[in-house]
């Protein structure tokens, strides 16, 4: 399997606070990678560095066979994502928000935006102003927006935030479909039951490093754990 993302010895410090200290991570094509860690462990910081939103202090990030540095702007067109809560133009419709984002990539036919809204289950509210959307609808719109440029690598920071159980299941089905189509997905979440149901691989970050990485089945089997939550809580106590 091709490697889509590789982080090698990545470091990031904010003022005097070392947040990421020699982080290594590898994600292969078509994987749905669950990125787990306690509050403040450095998940968002890492995802921002992968998306080119934050500079790496030391180490390398290779995305789709490109080294992430100041010269790698073209690579941003091949990545999509939601970092923290998605922000929209509230007085514009969901469809118009997608169009505005699509214009960054040269614009697409309206049909494409409508297909994305249908995929995430909010097609009927395409022309409704975003200020009338619920949190879950905004989250769905965020996923649609992240898919506008048909990215090969999709990065979702807490995508199930605000979703009800049906919404969470819908998102899982969408992610499985996208992964079957060959997209590679990284999800950070605290909803371990959700992660266990959808991810093919997980990486756990603690003390600025990945302390465990592997398939969910393998990690659970090796350690005789019932579920990911039990495994995660034990591991966090140990490290
Ligand atoms: N711009 C910044 N300046 C200073 N410190 C920051 C900055 N961004 C993040 N941090 C600190 O870096 C650490 C990691 O934050 P980060 O948001 O990456 O964690 P996280 O794993 O995503 O947490 P959560 O699960 O709560 O979202 C935290 O201690 C945070 O306070």
What does this structure look like?
- With 239 residues, the protein is α/β, with parallel strands linked by helices.
- The protein has eight helices and ten strands.
- It has helices spanning 43-50, 94-103, 110-119, 135-146, 165-180, 192-198, 216-222, 228-238; strands at residues 3-14, 17-28, 32-36, 58-63, 66-67, 79-82, 153-157, 184-188, 201-206, 209-214.
- The strands form two sheets. Strands 6-7-8-3-9-10 form a six-stranded mixed beta sheet, sandwiched between helices. Strands 2-1-4-5 form a four-stranded antiparallel beta sheet, covered by helices on one side.
- Helix 2 packs across helix 3 (110-119).
- The two termini are 31 Å apart.
- The structure holds adenosine-5'-triphosphate (ATP).
- Adenosine-5'-triphosphate binds next to strand 2 and helix 1.
- This is ATP-binding cassette domain-containing protein.
Report the structural category. Answer: alpha/beta
Q: What is the CA-based Rg, rounded?
A: 18 Å
User: What's the helix count?
Assistant: 8
Please bin the fraction of helical residues: 25-40%
- Distance, first to last CA: 31 Å
The major beta sheet can be summarized as: 6 strands, mixed
Low-confidence stretches: none
**Distinct ligands, ions and cofactors found in the model:** adenosine-5'-triphosphate
Order of strands, widest sheet: 6-7-8-3-9-10
The fraction of residues assigned to DSSP E strands is: 25-35%
Order of helices and strands: EEEHEEEHHHEHEHEEHH
Overall pLDDT: 92
Number of strands: 10
Broad shape: globular
GO molecular function, one term: ATP binding
Pfam families: ABC_tran (PF00005)
Family: Belongs to the ABC transporter superfamily.
Domain ABC transporter: 5-232
């Amino acid at each position: 399997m091709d490697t889509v993302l590789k982080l090698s010895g990545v470091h990031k410090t904010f003022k005097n606070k070392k947040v990421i200290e020699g982080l290594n991570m590898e994600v292969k094509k078509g994987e749905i990678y669950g990125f787990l860690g306690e509050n403040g462990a450095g998940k968002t910081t890492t995802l921002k560095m992968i998306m080119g939103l934050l500079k790496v202090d030391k180490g390398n990030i290779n995305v789709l066979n490109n080294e992430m540095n100041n010269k790698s702007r073209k690579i941003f067109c091949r990545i999509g994502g939601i970092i923290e809560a998605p922000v929209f133009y509230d007085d514009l419709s969901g469809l118009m928000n997608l169009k505005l984002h699509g214009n960054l990539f040269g614009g697409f036919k309206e049909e494409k935006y409508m297909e994305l809204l249908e995929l995430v289950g909010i097609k009927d509210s395409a022309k409704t102003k975003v200020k009338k959307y619920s949190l879950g609808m905004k989250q769905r719109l965020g996923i649609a927006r992240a898919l506008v440029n048909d990215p090969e690598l999709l990065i979702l920071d807490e995508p199930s935030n605000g979703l009800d159980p049906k919404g969470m299941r819908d998102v899982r089905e969408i992610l499985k479909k996208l992964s079957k189509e060959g997209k590679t997905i990284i999800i950070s979440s605290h909803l371990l039951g959700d992660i266990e149901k959808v991810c093919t691989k997980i990486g756990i970050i603690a003390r600025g490093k990945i302390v465990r990485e592997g398939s969910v089945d393998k990690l659970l089997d090796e350690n005789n754990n019932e579920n990911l939550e039990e495994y995660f809580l034990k591991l966090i106590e140990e490290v």
